[in-house]
Structures are given as structure tokens and as C-alpha cells.
Amino acid sequence: MMDAPTTDRWIRRLNLLQLVLAGIIIMTPTVWMVLSSLKPSFEVTAYPPTLVFTPTLDNYVELTKTTPFLSYALNSLIVTIGSTALGLLFGIPAAFTVSWTRISWPAILTLAARMAPGTLFLLPWYVMFRQIGMIGSYTALILSHAVITLPIVIWVLLPSFDGIPRSVFEAAQVDGCSVTRILWRIALPLVASGIAVSAILAFVFSWNYFLFALVLSNGDSKTLIAAAFNFIGEGSTQWGALMAAATLIALPPLVLAALVQRWLVSGLTLGAVKG
Amino acid sequence: MSDAAATLTHDRQRLELSALSAPAVVFTVAMIAFPVIYTVWLGFQSFSSTGKQSYVGLANYARLVSDHEFWHGLWVTIALYVLSLALQLVLGVWLALVLFHAKRLPGIVRSLFISPFMMPPVVAGMMWLVILDPSLGAANYILQSLGLPPSEWLASPTWVIPTVALIDTWQWTPYVALIVLGGLQSLPPSVYEAAQIDGASPFKTFQRITLPLLLPTIVTAAILRSVDLLRFFDIIYITTQGGPGNASNTLNIYGFRVGFEFFNIGYASALMLTLTAIVFGAVLACNRLRGAVAW
């Protein structure tokens, strides 16, 4: 029979083995995507697939030359930054008020909206926006994507505002501070990190969102995600360019998520789990 | 301060608070509440090909009951939901336990683990489309090198649902794991120590102590996944558009196509309201369950 420290060491090794196995399963598809994007075009579709090749950026060059990739990227940036800014602008004071008054129905309504299937809103929006000729406009896209960002901002910031001791606000009120001033001068600096996390999460989910832009954008305002469909359609053998597009589209959210990975989980569950 | 002055400050405060929440409230009413009410109204309308609309009462809902495509979509939605949720919860709890026992996780490892669900589902669909290609994909090459028969994956009416479930499981299991990990880390260490003193085996400890204590967290993860899984859209729309045939035509995909490919806005509204009711029903049921397993 083995003694306790030896058993312990084996359990630890077994655990590490499982961790590595999980890591490989999680990482392989992404690595394969990046590798495929760097392969010379004749090697992307080689069968059996090759692992050793001379990396090239040809696919990326091809992508920017043959498709309006850069203008799609610009559209994505405009819509994402616009909707994130709108989410923060509306969401920060709303979260503060909900935390202050304990009147929570606005927060709950935005959460319910986040749970409903997007098509539920898309149908009436389409009819409404078409009537006022706003299909394809940045305004329509930014407004629709703000439905994604607003609940994220409110629900990530609520616990942060709740965490500020009430005595801090009361002391400021005794000194004659108005509510707006308390939010601006006292509460905001205290929840700065929460605002950063909510902004990044809002950016990521707005960037990743597919459905709304699929219908509300047109040729000129198409976002990268909505255009992804076109890249697939443009010939099934153009895998190199397709994987180059996929890699570039995934890059901004992945880089941003890596920056805030430590604080991400509590934010992602919209307050359902205290992380 | 006199009473009058106090009331004045109080009124002023209320006014200020209203003003602060006003933009979000107005936005929510204009972009969420009003459109949903409008959808309810649209669900009672019929639009002809010339764009003329007429009130048809419950005709759209009557059509729904006798529509094979609807029942098929409901079946696909539920099959995909049950399969994906089961896979993600089982694998997620396993991965959470592995991460929990690894103690210290460097930031880079954590970043790698969250990368699947932080990337757009559309990108996940694009990359798996290439990997799972029936004739040139890497997945079939691996199967064949192991002496297994190749699969048609997304191109097979039989395998398309399990395949889509696998893609979604790849993407969201780490998310479930991180939620469950949070639950594990908040469990009191004393219960393990007591079990150890009693000489319980690791498996018994997990089955009798960890799992029951963890159930509320697992149900929370199930709620968060249910919301996404019941309205499954992105990956299917990118990879199969509901095909082959209608084998992966979920209710959300079906409703979208009825609305924006066939421009039957009235019927699509009825479909989407039904799907929304299903999603909220599932969330409420899970919430009940969470109450039952709370400790």
C-alpha cells in the first residue's frame, strides 16, 4: 500500500493530466483556425491536413483586397463603440438610482429583455425602422445593440454601487451635496473598476452580436459579424481567407476579455453568482 | 432646517433621481416595452404580399397548432436544448473540480479557458465548419487515423443536432465550469474536513457532500444556459441555416425565416411570442428548482 504523500502526489498528477487534456480540447480548434489562416492557399484544403508549412500572410492580404473587410471592420467599431457608450451613458445613472432607491423594475425589465429571443424585438423594429427609413443606418444599429449593452452595464454596476456604504452618501448629503453631485464626485470614482469591466463586457457582447445587424444593416453599414456570412458564401474552397476573417473578427473580444479575465465571471452571470 | 426646507430637499432629491434614471427608462420603454406590445398586435394581423394588413384574430395561433414545421422546430429546439445542457453541465462540473484542485491558475491559463465563449459564436461556427468538412476536414482525418468511419457531421440530417450541440458545448462548457468553480470556492472547508475525519472516500465525499451543496450553483448555470440554448441561432444560421433539409430548424431560426425570408410578419410574431413564453417558462421552472435545492 502506498503512503499518504505518494497517493497525494499521484492525485495531483492525475488532476494536472486532466487539466492539460481539457486545455488541449479547448485550444485545438482555435489554434487550427489561426494555423489555417497562415497556410498557403493550396495547403489549406490539403488532405491529409498538413501541420508543417511555411507561414504566409497571403490570406490576409487577399481578404483585404477582394472584400471590403476594412470598411466592415469600421462599421463594427462604430456600432460597438456607439452602443457601448450609450449603454454606459444610460446605464450608469440608472444603476445608481436603482441602488439608491431600491426600485428595481427598470433593471429587471432590461434583464427580461436580455432573456427574450432577439427576433421578438427584431420584427417590430424592422417594421418601425422601415417606416421611418432607418434600415441600414448606424442609428438603428447602435440603438438595437444598446439593448444588449444596457443590461450588462446596469447588472455589472449594481453590486458595485451596493457595495458603497450608505454612510458615505449620508455624510455628503449633510454637507449639502446634491444627488447628481454625489454620483459624479463620490460614487463614480469608487466604482471605476466596475465601469471598466462593464464597458469591456458590453463591447465584447455588442461586437459578437449577430442577429440584429443581419436585418438592420445594409451593404454600406454591414458589420463584420453580419458580413461573415458573405465570406462563407463566396466559394467554399477559400478556406484560407475565411479563417483569416474569422481570426481577425475574434481578435478584439479575445484581447479585451484577457485584460479583465479576473473580474469576468461575476459580470457574466449578471449578478446571479457572487464571484 | 425647517420642515418646509426638508420637504423641499426631499422633493428635489426625488426629482434628481427621476432625471438620472429617465434616459434608461425612456430607452427601455421605446426599444423594449413598446416593440413587444407592438409584436403582440402584429401577431393578430396578416400581411398580404402587397403589404396590405388585416386583423385576423387568433388565426396565426390556430395556424401554429396545425403547422408541422412549428412542431418540428419545437422538437429540434428541445432536443438541442436537452442534449447541450446535459453535456455542458456534466463536463462543466468535471472541469470545475479539475480547476478547483489545481489551486493556483495563472492569468494566461484562465484567459485560454474563457477564450471559447468570449469569441463570437459566428466565428466558432466558421471554424468548426472548416474542421468538420465531410471531405477535407481535420475531424474526419482524425477519425480515420483512429480506424473509425468518417462522419458527415453538419451535412447529415441524423448527426446535425448532436454536432451543433458539440460545438456549443465546446464553446460554453468553460463558462459553466467557471460558475461552478465560484460555487466550489464559496463552500465552507469545514465540511470536507469532517468528511475526511470520518474516512469518506473522495467519490463518496463528492456524491454526498459536494454535489448537494453545489446544486444551487449548478441550477443557476442551467438557467443562464437555458436562456441561450432555447433561442439557439448564431451557430446554426452560420453553418446550416436550419438544414440539411429542415433537420436543424430551431424555432428561433424558423421564426426568423418566416419573418425575414418569407416576410410573414404576423405569423412570425406569433411564433416568437410562443418561443418567448417557452424561454420564460423554463427560467421560472428552473428558479423554482433553485428554491427547492437551496440550503
UniProtKB/TrEMBL annotation, chain A:
GO terms for cellular component: plasma membrane. The chain crosses the membrane at residues 16-35, 72-96, 108-129, 135-158, 186-210, 239-260. One of its GO terms (biological process) is transmembrane transport. It is a multi-pass membrane protein. InterPro entries: BP-dep_ABC_trans_perm, MetI-like, MetI-like_sf. SUPFAM superfamilies: MetI-like. It is found in: Cell membrane. Pfam families: BPD_transp_1 (PF00528). Residues 73-260 form the ABC transmembrane type-1 domain. Its main location: membrane. Keywords: Cell membrane, Membrane, Transmembrane, Transmembrane helix, Transport. Belongs to the binding-protein-dependent transport system permease family. PANTHER family: INNER MEMBRANE ABC TRANSPORTER PERMEASE PROTEIN YCJP (PTHR32243:SF18), MALTOSE TRANSPORT SYSTEM PERMEASE-RELATED (PTHR32243). This is ABC transporter permease subunit. It comes from Bradyrhizobium cajani.
TrEMBL record, chain B:
PANTHER family: GLUCOSE IMPORT SYSTEM PERMEASE PROTEIN GLCT (PTHR43759:SF1), TREHALOSE TRANSPORT SYSTEM PERMEASE PROTEIN SUGA (PTHR43759). Residues 74-284 form the ABC transmembrane type-1 domain. It comes from Bradyrhizobium cajani. One of its GO terms (cellular component) is plasma membrane. Keywords: Membrane, Transmembrane, Transmembrane helix, Transport. This is ABC transporter permease subunit. Belongs to the binding-protein-dependent transport system permease family. The keyword Nucleotide-binding does not apply. The chain crosses the membrane at residues 20-44, 74-100, 112-131, 265-286. It comes from the Bacteria. It is a multi-pass membrane protein. It is found in: Cell membrane. One of its GO terms (biological process) is transmembrane transport. CDD domains: TM_PBP2.
